[in-house]
Amino acid sequence: MSAKVVAFNDLPASDLLVDAVYLGGAANNAADDPLNKLMLCGNMGGFRKVGRKNETKYVVLYSSQSDRNWPDQLDLATGLFTYYGDNKTPGSHLHHTTRGGNRLLAGVFDCVHASPPRRSEVSPFFIFTKAPLYGTRAVQFRGLAAPGASGVAPTDDLVAVWKSFEGQRFQNYKALFTILKTPRVPRAWLADLQAGHAQSKSCPKEWRQWVDVGSYIPLAAEPAIEIRTREEQLPNNDLEREILATVYNYFKKNPTAFEVCAAALVQFQNPENYIIDEITRRSVDGGRDAIGRYRLGPSADPVTVDFALEAKCYRPELPGLAGAPTQVGVKETSRLISRLRHRQFGILVTTSYIGAQAYREIREDKHPVILLCGRDLAKLLIDKGYSSVDTVTQWLQQFPS
Predict the structure, then answer these.
(1) Which residues are CB-contacts of 268 (< 8 A; sequence separation ≥ 6)?
(2) DSSP 331
(3) Pairwise CA distance, residues 68 & 18, whole Å
(4) What is the pTM of this model?
(5) Contact indicator for 130, 5 with CB cutoff of 8 Å
(6) H or E segment at 312?
(7) What pLDDT digit, counting tens, does each position of 86-112 carry?
(8) Which 3 state secondary structure label does DSSP give 356?
(9) DSSP class of residue 155?
(10) Backbone phi and psi for residue 213, each to the nearest 5 degrees, phi listed first
(11) How many CB atoms lie within 10 A of CB 317?
């Protein structure tokens, strides 16, 4: 289904519709920027604050989603948006950036975490991402966002992360926002915001509710199709392809060695609760390359659930890799399922993808099996800061190949 598209000349009078695409101009210069015309903001950068120096009416956050070192990410299933700040190169303090984006983030989250909270002092955030299929300047509106998220601790929604570049270390913010369940933002509210009337009659009820009581109503959109296609299981950009190829090439001559790496990648999902008890020997693994436990409940009195892990270092379908790609089929998945004991779940980790029939049987028969495919592995590594061939290669050195 194609997105609604708004022409450049119609931008000044347009409402904001979730997932609608707003086209750029044709003058072939900075005036083609659609956000400048649609949101009355600046025409450059990721942070685009509207308001005077010490006054913020609202903030536009724009992401190209193509920065390999700072991978902004929208999780459609949960409505959570991860956005990185604007201190992306060495040479400046965390808060001393040209556009002041990190200082703005610090002030906003201070208001959210204050006791009592000062949410009425927080300006709305409007999230846009690049829409390259519709032109070099086109943008897509992803939603109205509030800083933070339900159930996320104050120590986890704004985190200063370290990066290094050419031997120099520096910090940047990783911020978490909730896309609110607001399908349409009326043009009238933007005008009211500019006039300083955030709580006008045009204000969306989801924003008003967050300001009043701190209730997050996320725009969560569970996928309608439970079975991922081959394309959805494999990388969809150059960075993910490079990361996955690096992992596969490291283990391809000794695929069995991938088992330890697969266990580490599983733990990446939740290091505090995934416990690997044993990497089984190949001759006696019984269809399980590793066994472990997942911890549930309070740390003082947890309950654990056993799991079995199967790892398959198969050749993924990637440019530059010689030979035909290999999929995980029914034989492999059936082997894991048959070894699962009562009250156990399974995890299948592969550098390639799960064949359609095997995937369908697992989901339709409701087998408790988690599937981590090539794209999942690449995303896990990128999310943990291993966002280049060099950093991934260094991380892999801990595993004998």
Answers:
(1) 380, 381, 383, 384
(2) H
(3) 25
(4) 0.75
(5) no
(6) strand 303-312
(7) 998 888 889 888 888 999 999 999 999
(8) helix
(9) T
(10) -130, 0
(11) 18
What would you measure as the largest C-alpha separation in the chain, in angstroms? 72
**Segment 204-207 long-range contacts (CB within 8 Å, at least 24 positions apart):** 204/144, 204/180, 206/144, 206/180, 206/181, 206/182, 207/124, 207/144, 207/146, 207/180, 207/182
| Residue pointed to by tokens 């492999």 | 332
Q: Kindly report the length of the chain.
A: 401
Could you report the per-residue pLDDT of 196-242, keeping only the tens digit for each?
999 999 999 999 999 999 999 999 987 666 789 999 999 988 889 99
pLDDT digits (tens, 9 = 90+) for 339-398: 898 889 999 999 999 999 999 999 999 999 999 999 999 999 998 889 889 999 999 999
Sequence-ordered list of residues with C-beta below 8 angstroms from that of 111, at least 6 positions apart, any chain = 117, 118, 119, 121, 122
Q: Which amino acid appears at position 128 of this protein? A: F
Query: Does the bond joining 116 to the residue before it have cis omega, within 30 degrees of 0?
Result: yes
pLDDT of residue 169: 86
- Do residues 86 and 96 touch, judged by C-beta distance below 8 A? no
C-alpha distances (whole Å) from 11 to each of 14, 26, 149, 187, 238 are 5, 14, 31, 10, 32
